[in-house]
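Review form for a predicted model. The reviewer records the input and the model, then writes brief findings.
Reviewer: anonymous (R2)
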Amino acid sequence: MKLKLLLSVFILSFTICSTAQDANKAFAITGNGDFQWMNIRQIDLATGAVTKNIFEKGVTGFMMRNIITGKEVTAENKPGTKQVGSAEFPTATMVAAAAYDKKHDKLFFSPMFLSELRWLDLSSNAENPKFYTLQSPLLSLANSNDEANHFTRMTIGADGNGYALTNDGNHLIKFTTGKKIVITDLGNLIDASLNNHISVHNKCSSWGGDMVADALGNLYLFTASKNVFKIDLESRIATHLGSITGLSGVYTLNGAAVDNDDNVIISSANTFEGFYKVNMKDLAATKLNTTGQVYNASDLANGNLLFTSQVRNTVGVAPLVQREVIGNQFISIYPNPVFGSQFKVTFDNRATGEYNIAVTDIQGKVIMSKQVFVKSAGQVETIQMKTKPANGMYLIKVTNANKKSVFADKIVID
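Model under review:
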């Protein structure tokens, strides 16, 4: 069992490292010669040129389904229809945060002012693009007119999960990308002690922009004011790396994506200057020479990770493997396999009360147990075992206050 698991991890890790960089294809949320960021276009990151119009407001038909209610909204999306700009329009209220999930070929995004995570199925061969939407109380902050609560930064991490960040840096949201979407609020970012006066929460220096991820499990925040922070996902500590040079004073940084050479390509939503390439070694920006129409873009997204070549040449790349979530409509357990002695349990619905989480070996011997009290939907409990058990298969069981099982499944500890 252990040999098969390790072999699978190695093969999948090698595959991810070998194919992670997908040429220079990226997706841009753009205006249409205006400042309404509601169009989805495919671009070439090497030049910034548009290679495909995927969704254009007032032109492209679409289908959208609410995955909770199952209700489907179909519209012809012709110019002048009431659909454009309404909540039933896929890119309604404009979009400033998007992320491309290469594994499942989905483009995730969150429209401003709406408490919804939406995605476009890019693998669909349907005549009209197929969109899906999921409402969550953990995204309800975006309903506020306060810009601090808007999700304007999003990316897919090396673990295969999506991450979105509010303007004020007080809510780092994690979401899974497979068949079952699980949303978790990881909490606020924490300023590193060396950041001095440049705080990741400051409106002038650190709101807006976009995020990218590296192959080592970190996130990089590029703010509208051209500051760059490195975010450690385990600690949520944001370290200020410096400011991008070579940009004009009116250029706001709004989109970011990784090219094949470990540079970050950036875009602006508010100017038509075009795209710039940022060298991550010195944060110097150089302009791309774009042929054809240059669009202003509020967000960029692609499947590349920073520093993939470094991980390819490093022994022990298993942490890059996407961990599958196990669970039901009430509870989710991740990661699985468990690498180390810690995993998380998310309570996905509104059932409050006391619960017991127990881990046993296959003979039924209790390895550990923990009593928890659930106060609200989306509550996450971190399960920390005192010592790491031997590698192998274990059972996890969650029971309620009446000792009735509400979840049971297998986990693998490696």
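Findings: The domain at 11-312 is CATH 2.120.10.30 (Neuraminidase).
Further findings: The chain has three helices and 31 strands.
Recommendation: see findings above.
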